[in-house]
Amino acid sequence: MKKHNFYAGPSILSEYAIANTAAGVLNLDGIGLSVMEISHRSKEFMAILNQAKTLVKELLEVPKGYDVLFLGGGASMQFCMIPYNFLNTKAAYLDTGAWSSKAIKEAKFFGDVEVVASSKDKNYSYIPKGYSVPSDADYFHFTTNNTIYGTQLKEDPEVGIPLVSDMSSDIFSRKIDVSKYAAIYGGAQKNAGPAGVSFVIIKEDFLEKIVKPIPTMLDYRTHVKGESMFNTPPCLNIYASLQTFKWYHQKGGVLAMQKINEEKAQLLYDEIERNKLFRSPVLNEGDRSLMNVTFIMTDEYKELEAEFLSYSAYKDIVGIKGHRSVGGFRASIYNGMPLESVRHLVETMKRFESKI
User: Fold this and answer.
1) Residue 313 belongs to what domain range?
2) Is residue 190 among the annotated active site residues?
């Protein structure tokens, strides 16, 4: 019996993606070779890469004038590449959690960074609002979903300068207007496939802002010109991502995923609000993540945290222990998470409450 997998990342994948990736590892489309051993220059892999790019553009309604890249290095490499390429004088950053603060740290190696707002004062338990973004900044960078703290920015900001966003953990989970962004990037290991590949959606006009010498592998123009093939790409991971994109397409696309994601999140948040044992550390309901639901024991029952974790494990639930900086629990309910697993977690919370 498969566990109910609430890990934050690497995280749950659809059964469709797992089964089809496994089949391709054994024998890719009946050609007598594994997808792990074919040349990245072969017609078979080129078809995989091109189909993956096409489906990303279709699912996200990417307009003309954008390129889709699949690169190594994860989102952490993008923390460096974005400012290396585009920070010429000053960049604006929104600080909403661990990953945005890491991006800020990297950007400071390349120029002035203005942090327009931060929620660090309350342990990143809210999304800042009412801030202003300097009009002379080269770009405005923000992280849409904060996996550790369970907050999410659910709207595309209107600030008058190029938008750059880390969407590692909520890409494909909700509708976004790609045309408002100069660059969108993320690690795949939540909603875009397994760990080991990252995606970048970049506006071609934005590349014209690159004015300084950059090492070849860190220059976005290298990868756009090479069509993600300047060096050997993570072939198996791209193949697995393709299976994930195919599954999204079969399920009805991003809007269909958004609908079920909202249903899953509402079901779980409703139980957190109802259950006397738990509460959400994110007080503003509008800031609560649809992807990473964080919750903690109420003060009266704090000593039961370890017992609830043990009880959840007994009920075949894995991955709900909260990050050490927040404590408590975290249920990551990405696109691959079935509604049935969320219902099982809710029922487990109810049964545990009844034992107290």
Assistant:
1) 253-355
2) yes
